[in-house]
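Backbone shapes recur. Consider a single case.
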Amino acid sequence: MAHTLGLTPVCMARSRIGDTPYHTALLYRASKLRMIGRRRLGEGVFHHALIRARLRPLEADNDHDDFLALATHLTYTDGDSRLREARWMTDYAGDFPGVPPRALLLADMNCPSPSDRPDWDNVPRNLQSRYRLVQDDGTFGDTDTRAVQVLLESGWQDPETLTGPRPSATSTPTSRCPCAWITSSPTE
């Protein structure tokens, strides 16, 4: 896929749970960007992976234009696990020692935005525990958007809200989940 798209892999990380063939990948265009460094963060914590790369435009002669690109795929299993995973990314939503002040998060959040309200009649009841809050008595509550909400509260911005109309929802509660998140330095 990378070759077909003319992109270079930063990393491809296999899911840590089960024997599934699922991988998380981060690709970049080497004709435009230089990779300064890369890491897999939260290894053994994320169901899939969290990949971080520090990238610099080729024309840049210093680190002023550097940015972080993060790639992840939050777990499908439940909101509590997604919330734990999302907390790993809050540091990158603003100034943090030793990292560039700008970041891009590319992710399958497996979670709808707080403004989305799925039609639960279109979701099989046996799958609803993945996407809804589960009350102390085991009954289902509202849509579990805590993972996305914690990112928004920490300073990440959902580009779909910045760029205009959102796509129509399909029958799954994650069909309109944020897939790319951006943040920038306070001066930009």
